Amino acid sequence: MVGSSEAGTESWRGRYYRLEEVQKHNNSQSTWIILHNRIYDVTKFLDEHPGGEEVLREQAGGDATENFEDVGHSTDARTMSETFIVGELHPDDRGKLQKPTFMVQLGDPGNSSNYCGPDVSFLHVRVSALLRTNARRD
């Protein structure tokens, strides 16, 4: 594994980082993400991530919890991710994380090539929510 041997011993417990500090680690030289208020340094894992480096880099410096859970990672992936933990988000900053919002773009009704109409958009939102719910049950 490419994670930190230090993380495997849980020596990260009690080590808190402020959100401002985590947000600085948003590039390929230093890539940190937040999952369930824990801070992960995934820099060394970028090249090995099965979903591609870009997936992690898009989340760098921020909360990746929603996207991580939406993908439905395996038990092995969850276990391996623990080797990348470097600390926890400071309790005072946990309320600062942006909650995901649904943004449905209907397109331009005057342009039939990109307009899907309210019925299709509603269906997309419902199916997405159903898939997310089922992934969390697994």
What does this structure look like?
The longest helix is centred in the last third of the chain and has 21 residues. It is globular and about 35 Å long. By secondary structure, the chain is of the alpha+beta class. Strand 3 and strand 4 form a beta hairpin. Helix content is 37%, strand content 14%. It has two domains: 92 residues, Roll (Flavocytochrome B2, Chain A, domain 1), CATH 3.10.120.10; 37 residues. It contains six helices and five strands; from the N terminus they run αβαβββαααβα. Strands 1-5-4-3-2 form a five-stranded mixed beta sheet. About 4% of the residues have low confidence. This is Cytochrome b5. Keywords: Electron transport, Endoplasmic reticulum, Heme, Iron, Membrane, Metal-binding, Microsome, Transmembrane, Transport.
Task: Give a short overview.
It is built from 6 helices and 5 strands. It has 138 residues and is α+β, with helices and mostly antiparallel strands.
CATH top-level class of the largest domain: Alpha Beta
Instruction: State the fourth-level CATH superfamily of the largest domain.
Output: Cytochrome b5-like heme/steroid binding domain
Order of helices and strands: HEHEEEHHHEH
By CATH, the topology of the largest domain is Flavocytochrome B2, Chain A, domain 1
- Low-confidence segments, given as residue ranges, are 117-122
Structural Rg = 18 Å
